[in-house]
């Protein structure tokens, strides 16, 4: 009973708690709604003045303390209308409603709200609703308590101000013109160019409108389903990436709308736990700076947001050697901890941060941005001078940790730059005390049994200091010595009885990400501190007092847990890969572009590019063997162990990402005076055009391989060599088929012999069955009647077989003539022959019975047929049907139609022999058909097209550098093919397979489609002064930065 009462009270308590929670949730939600409504009635004015750009001044937007989170839910339009007066239009200003700082509920399927009313009576339309179909459900309560924001951390390895690498100064170096001097175009050429340009703009607007309607403030649009994706940090990647394209295309209103929306992005928080530094830098930071540049520096909020983002990214550079962590864990819990760069850093991601941080340093005059990337450049330059496995270029993976873990640690290494961090310990500070393990005391030696009259001896204990990866150990000296002496063994590491203080100062075990060291743990009186002078924890190997040791040792923390080294290959002992393709491409692309951005003031970039292009010419460029003998080039992938003259291997890759190389080499040829390289650039760009034209869709695949020619000068199409390359067993395949045919003929002959033996045996068995039947003696007249009856049966079966198509490929087997008359050669029996055979059987029995009755003179023929006669007739007919089926090959699927033997033989299909090997010709034809290989391709590694820009990028560079209008025609063919296959309901979608005429769509539209691909197409049909190569330099995401014009 007591248990029942307790249970009831427990249920009452639960019910009361549930009611209380619901009431609390209801009233807290109402309070948040009232706060939001109050904020909506306090807009901030944006005074445009007389500027033609409505967003000339954006300083009134929320500051750091008022950073907006998610776009807030607004009251219904009807409620707004009852609470505020009717809006009054104004042509002088446009007011944006202030978005509250705290994130609130965002409901899916929101309808676009109407205009809000401001204190000034002006009205403006809301930017966009963000609660579109497909958005994840958000909780109905405020997310503030669970939202984590980035916080500025105290750097573990700060660079002193006096040690910062600053932007190079001095007079700009004269740089030759890059762009061709164009003549005035004809009226017809202008009409055609503008027509194409307008078509590109229309496709861009269609995709942009789809993003605005269905994915606003999200990273990417799903153009088939009308949903969205956030593969990056949910910071509106497409919006930021597309800003400069909107301006270049003259879409002023769309640009202003997007520029205002930039302030709604909160870079201090993200649903993603890490920031991809490379992608964030080239898309977000590059997009903001380029939009600021192309708009003439009017929209100040763009630069402010760029600085906000850059300050967050700078935390990734806080490592002992200042090499960045490429996937930066931004949350304070992790960002506050010491960390190192990866031992498997991607080459392109490490080396492609220079342009964006350089341009930011130029605009803000803040040297620490340039210092961050200058140290990467210096490290790459030093490595290139030191030499890589393939001299001049870097492998696809880099050990950027700065640690050489293959070298044993040295305890007394001098501390670099120790004079910059003088030792100033507190005089009155107590001596540090770390973890001190208790030292073993003297232990009485155990007495062995049977030992009497002997005094127990004392054991001598030795404590060994910790070694790399091993804790400290204790041992009894001489325990393993069987000679009775207590001399030290070979494993003794030092004198017995090491003191605790000595142990505390001994070599520390290596740790992967050791924090900094501290001055207060350095032994008193030390004037030139080393790592051995720091009191450490014997368990962790780290300093006892971290902050003090860091001050004492300064930059030496990089030496704390490893031997320092420069950049090195991520795979130091194996075969490394080198190419101009994905994972390495943009590092080399930035060498000449950084030279342009710095106006030639930094000579290292020129030297690094020249060494790179020398290696590319020597090892990577090749000419493919293609139909039509088109003179084109590609840059392949090479592997080597470090002796390329002996072990280098070339893979003839055709990779879409590598197609940027035509533009890079063409630009490098102009600015560095390498005029011979311009021809290489033209052939490289034209190679990617061929890769587009060769496929059924007219679009280049992500990756493929071709057959390289040994000589670039003599390279003609040889179909025999191409087929032999496709068939590695071409030399033995035809002989294997010939051997199989001979063996099969022998097997078939043996089968025929065995079949004839079976038929002979069947004939004999049938004859024996007939003789064994008990048939009364017959007269000569009876024998005549029986022969006539059997002839009728033979005639009936013959008529039946005339209506059946014979076996098409098998040679009919001649049936032996039975004892009741001649039978024609067999015919094919179809599946539906049973009814006809049954009817023939009935006719045969009826005729036979009549004959037998006539012979016996009876009036009822059926009464004259004995059971033995019926048995004999059944066996005879069954045997005939079975033999006919065997001879026909049991062609069950042949329809019951009347055909002549000639027609049947001509139209019949041959059943394939599954055991028959293919000939060389058959193998190649089937492989080409099954793999859908376009002419000239030997493999297709990636069949997708994800709206990539690299091919049209080089086409645009070639047009601007050479002035040849044929590049515009080539680009137009590419554009029409891409639009044909990628157009989707809400934009343009990536496709799965470019080797088919109609491919399925992937439902993805990456931000570079609007930021790069369509921008390059548009610029291809723009006037030459639009983003002139002599005034602008584009980053790897096609974001144009303003150059300092050379004299």
From TrEMBL:
Its EC number is 3.2.1.-. GO terms for cellular component: endoplasmic reticulum; membrane. Pathway: Protein modification; protein glycosylation. Its cofactor is Ca(2+). InterPro entries: 6hp_glycosidase-like_sf (IPR012341), Glyco_hydro_47 (IPR001382), Glycosyl_Hydrolase_47 (IPR050749), Seven-hairpin_glycosidases (IPR036026). Gene3D superfamilies: 1.50.10.10. Ca(2+) binds at residue 1036. Keywords: Calcium, Disulfide bond, Glycosidase, Hydrolase, Metal-binding. GO terms for molecular function: calcium ion binding; mannosyl-oligosaccharide 1,2-alpha-mannosidase activity. It is an enzyme of class 3 (hydrolase). Residues 405-421, 498-509, 897-907 have a biased composition (Polar residues). GO terms for biological process: carbohydrate metabolic process; ERAD pathway. Residues 42-56 have a biased composition (Basic and acidic residues). Residues 42-72, 108-138, 405-456, 468-539, 893-915 are annotated as: Disordered. Residues 526-539 have a biased composition (Low complexity). The keyword Lipid biosynthesis does not apply. It comes from the Eukaryota. Belongs to the glycosyl hydrolase 47 family. This is alpha-1,2-Mannosidase.
């Amino acid at each position: 009973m007591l248990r029942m009462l307790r249970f009831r009270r427990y249920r009452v308590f639960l019910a009361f708690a549930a009611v209380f929670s619901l009431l609390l949730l209801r009233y807290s939600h109402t309070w948040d709604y009232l706060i939001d409504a109050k904020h909506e009635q306090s807009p901030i004015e944006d005074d445009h003045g007389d500027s033609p750009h409505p967003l000339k001044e954006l300083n009134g937007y929320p500051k750091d303390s008022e950073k907006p989170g998610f776009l807030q839910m607004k009251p219904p339009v009807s409620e707004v209308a009852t609470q505020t007066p009717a809006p009054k239009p104004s042509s002088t200003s446009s007011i944006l409603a202030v978005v509250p700082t705290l994130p609130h509920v965002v409901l899916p399927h929101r309808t676009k709200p109407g205009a809000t009313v401001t204190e000034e009576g002006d009205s403006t339309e809301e930017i966009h609703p963000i609660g579109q179909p497909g958005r994840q459900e958000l909780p109905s309560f405020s997310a503030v308590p669970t939202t984590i924001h980035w916080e500025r951390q105290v750097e573990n390895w700060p660079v002193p101000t006096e040690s910062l690498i600053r932007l190079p100064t001095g007079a700009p170096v004269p740089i030759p013109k890059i762009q061709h001097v164009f003549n005035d175009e004809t009226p017809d050429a202008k009409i055609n160019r503008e027509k194409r340009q307008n078509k590109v703009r229309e496709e861009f607007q269609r995709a942009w409108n789809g993003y605005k309607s269905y994915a606003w403030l999200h990273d990417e649009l799903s153009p088939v389903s009308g949903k969205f994706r956030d593969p990056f940090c949910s910071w509106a990647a497409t919006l930021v990436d597309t800003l400069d394209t909107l301006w270049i295309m003259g879409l002023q209103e769309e640009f202003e709308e997007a520029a205002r929306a930039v302030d709604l992005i909160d870079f201090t928080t993200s649903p993603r736990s890490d920031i991809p530094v490379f992608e964030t830098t080239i898309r977000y930071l590059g997009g903001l700076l380029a939009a600021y540049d192309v708009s003439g520096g009017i929209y100040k909020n763009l630069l402010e947001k760029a600085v906000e983002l850059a300050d967050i990214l700078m935390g990734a550079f806080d490592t002992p050697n200042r090499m960045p962590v490429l996937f930066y864990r931004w949350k304070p819990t992790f960002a506050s901890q010491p960390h190192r760069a990866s031992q498997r850093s991607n080459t392109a991601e490490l080396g492609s941060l220079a342009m964006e941080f350089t341009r930011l340093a130029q605009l803000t005059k803040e040297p620490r941005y340039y210092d961050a990337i200058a140290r990467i450049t210096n490290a790459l330059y030093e490595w290139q001078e030191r030499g890589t496995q393939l001299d001049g270029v870097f492998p696809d993976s880099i050990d950027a940790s700065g640690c050489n873990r293959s070298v044993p640690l040295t305890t007394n290494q001098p501390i670099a730059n120790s004079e910059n961090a003088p030792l100033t310990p507190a005089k009155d500070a107590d001596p540090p005390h770390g973890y001190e393990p208790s030292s073993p005391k003297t232990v009485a030696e155990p007495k062995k049994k049977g030992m009497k009259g002997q005094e127990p001896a004392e054991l001598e204990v030795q404590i060994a200091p910790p070694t790399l990866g091993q804790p400290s150990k204790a041992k009894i000296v001489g325990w393993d010595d069987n000679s009775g002496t207590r001399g030290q063994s070979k494993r003794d590491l030092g004198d017995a009885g090491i003191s605790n203080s000595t142990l505390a100062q001994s070599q520390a075990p290596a740790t992967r990400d050791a924090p900094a060291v501290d001055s207060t743990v350095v032994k008193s009186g030390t004037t030139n501190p080393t790592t051995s002078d720091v009191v450490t924890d014997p368990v962790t190997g780290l300093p006892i007092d971290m902050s003090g040791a860091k001050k004492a040792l300064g930059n030496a923390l990089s030496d704390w847990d490893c031997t320092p080294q420069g950049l090195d290959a991520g795979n130091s002992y194996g075969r490394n890969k080198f190419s101009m393709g994905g994972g390495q491409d943009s590092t080399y692309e930035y060498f000449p572009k950084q030279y342009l951005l710095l106006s030639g003031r930094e000579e290292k970039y020129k030297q690094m590019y020249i060494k790179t292009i020398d290696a590319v010419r020597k090892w990577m460029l090749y000419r493919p063997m293609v139909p039509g003998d088109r003179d084109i080039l590609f840059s392949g992938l090479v592997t080597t162990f470090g002796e390329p003259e002996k072990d280098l291997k070339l893979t003839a890759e055709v990779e879409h990402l590598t197609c940027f190389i035509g533009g890079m080499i063409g630009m490098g040829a102009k600015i560095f005076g390498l005029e011979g390289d311009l021809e290489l650039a033209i052939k490289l760009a034209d190679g990617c055009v061929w890769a587009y034209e060769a496929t059924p869709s007219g679009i280049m695949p992500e990756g493929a391989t071709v057959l390289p020619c040994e000589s670039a000068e003599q390279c003609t199409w040889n179909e025999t060599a191409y087929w032999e390359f496709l068939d590695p067993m071409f030399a033995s395949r035809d002989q294997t088929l010939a051997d199989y045919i001979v063996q099969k003929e022998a097997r078939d002959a043996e089968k025929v012999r065995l079949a004839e033996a079976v038929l002979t045996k069947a004939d004999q068995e049938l004859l024996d069955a007939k003789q064994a039947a008990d048939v009364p003696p017959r007269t000569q007249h009876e024998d005549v009647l029986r022969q006539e009856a059997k002839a009728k049966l033979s005639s009936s079966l013959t008529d039946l077989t005339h209506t059946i198509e014979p076996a098409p490929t098998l040679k009919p087997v001649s049936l032996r003539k039975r004892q009741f008359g001649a039978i024609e050669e067999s015919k094919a029996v179809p599946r539906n022959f049973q009814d006809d055979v049954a009817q023939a059987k009935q006719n045969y029995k009826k005729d036979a019975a009549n004959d037998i009755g006539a012979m016996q003179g009876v009036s009822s023929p059926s009464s004259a047929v004995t059971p033995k006669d019926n048995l004999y007739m059944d066996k005879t007919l069954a045997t005939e049907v079975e033999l006919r089926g065997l001879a026909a090959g049991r062609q069950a699927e042949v329809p019951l139609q009347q055909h002549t033997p000639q027609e049947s033989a001509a139209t019949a299909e041959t059943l394939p022999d599954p055991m028959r090997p293919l000939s060389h010709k058959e193998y190649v034809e089937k492989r080409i058909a099954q793999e859908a290989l376009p002419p000239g391709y030997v493999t297709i590694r990636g069949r997708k097209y994800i709206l990539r820009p690299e091919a049209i990028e080089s086409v645009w560079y070639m047009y601007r550098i050479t002035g040849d209008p044929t590049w515009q025609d080539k680009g137009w063919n590419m554009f029409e093919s891409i639009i044909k296959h990628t157009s989707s309901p809400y934009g343009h979608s990536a496709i799965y397979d470019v080797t088919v005429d109609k491919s399925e769509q992937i439902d993805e539209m990456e931000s570079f489609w609007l930021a790069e691909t369509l921008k390059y197409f548009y610029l291809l049909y723009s006037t030459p002064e639009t983003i002139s190569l002599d005034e602008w330099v584009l980053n790897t995401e096609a974001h144009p930065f303003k150059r300092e014009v050379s004299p």
